[in-house]
């Protein structure tokens, strides 16, 4: 996928500090947004799958881990 131009508004001191340090604000913003999107996707997935996660946790609590007898540690 290609790159697109977007407009961001930053605190003037933050932008000046980044410039003075030679930081690539576009790449930093991209990385931060990608991380925030990943975190939000994970949060939503956990909400959507909460009943299955809870059911599995109950099963493990009652019966132990599947294949536990084959563990060597």
What does this entry look like structurally?
The protein is an all-alpha fold and 73 residues long. The longest helix is centred in the middle third of the chain and has 24 residues. It is elongated and about 60 Å long.
Radius of gyration: 22 Å
The N- to C-terminal Cα distance equals: 45 Å
Characterize the largest beta sheet: strand count, sense, and whether it forms a barrel: none
pLDDT < 50 stretches: none
Mean pLDDT across all amino acids: 95
What fraction of residues sit in β-strands? under 5%
The helix/strand class is mainly alpha
What is the ordering of alpha helices and beta strands? HHH
SSE inventory with pairings:
Blueprint lengths: L11 H9 L4 H24 L1 H14 L10
Descriptive tags:
mainly alpha, 3 helices, elongated, 73 residues
Short overview:
By secondary structure, the chain is an all-alpha fold. The protein is built from three helices and no strands.
């Amino acid at each position: 996928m290609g790159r697109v131009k977007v407009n961001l508004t930053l605190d003037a001191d933050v932008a000046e500090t980044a410039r003075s340090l030679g930081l690539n604000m576009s790449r930093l913003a991209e990385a931060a947004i990608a991380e925030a999107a990943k975190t939000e996707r994970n949060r939503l997935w956990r909400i959507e799958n909460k009943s299955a996660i809870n059911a599995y946790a109950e099963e493990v609590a009652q019966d132990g881990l599947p294949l536990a007898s084959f563990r060597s540690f």
